[in-house]
Design goal:
This protein is α+β, with helices and mostly antiparallel strands and about 200 residues long. It contains four helices and eleven strands; from the N terminus they run E-E-H-E-E-E-H-H-E-E-H-E-E-E-E. Strands 1-5-3-10-7-9-8-6 form an eight-stranded antiparallel barrel.
Length: about 200
């Protein structure tokens, strides 16, 4: 499993209805994309749920790295570049995925938490603690799924949690909150459950 995300930060007065319409008209195009586990079409709106910015920020879980490469070099991503410029695309090695009690529902929000591993920290211990926390969180009411991934270049640990209800009482420790406008999940069953090492 590979996790991937790019974020397009937009002007403070940007009409976010443009993003909503973009997802309404194009979101379905990845509903059957081979090699994609899931894509959550996420956005943050300035002043909503504590967001300081307007941002379009989808995240992906890939079951096949060739499919991820094909997407980045294909027409879909070319459209993102044409409309917004070429964003930095972050990607991480997937370490953990767990469906939650609401995995059958369509998620309406996701949270993202990123932590840089402190210099000198034991990576195995830090990762094990993060996985244990996400495992516990994954069992909570309203959780669609929980993920932990690692960027070993920058030693960054990332946690994504999908929530079935946009108004869910999300713990502050879960990270920044995003609205999910659409979910494409053609390969969600192939993401596995539990740790992946």
């Amino acid at each position: 499993m590979h996790a991937m995300q790019y974020a397009v930060t937009l002007p403070a007065d940007y009409d976010m209805e443009i993003i909503r319409e973009r997802v309404r008209s194009k979101g379905h195009l990845l509903d059957d994309y081979q090699g994609l586990g899931l894509k959550a079409y996420g956005m943050r709106e300035r002043g909503v749920d504590g967001s300081p910015v307007n941002q379009y920020a989808p995240f992906y879980l890939w079951t096949d790295p060739e499919a991820m490469n094909g997407f980045l070099l294909g027409d879909g991503f070319r459209g993102v570049v044409r409309d917004f410029g070429r964003p930095v695309v972050q990607n991480w090695r997937g370490l953990f995925h767990r469906p939650g009690p609401s995995s059958g529902a369509v998620p309406r929000a996701y949270t993202r938490r990123a932590d840089v591993l402190p210099e000198g920290a034991d990576v195995t211990t830090v990762v094990a603690e993060a996985v244990a926390e996400q495992e516990e969180l994954a069992m909570g009411d309203g959780v669609h799924s929980a993920v932990v991934a690692l960027d070993p270049r920058h030693w960054e640990l990332i946690r994504f949690t999908l929530w079935a209800d946009a108004a869910a009482d999300v713990p502050p420790s879960a990270g920044d909150r995003y609205q999910v406008l659409h979910l494409s999940a053609p390969g969600i069953a192939r993401l596995g459950a539990g740790r992946q090492w």
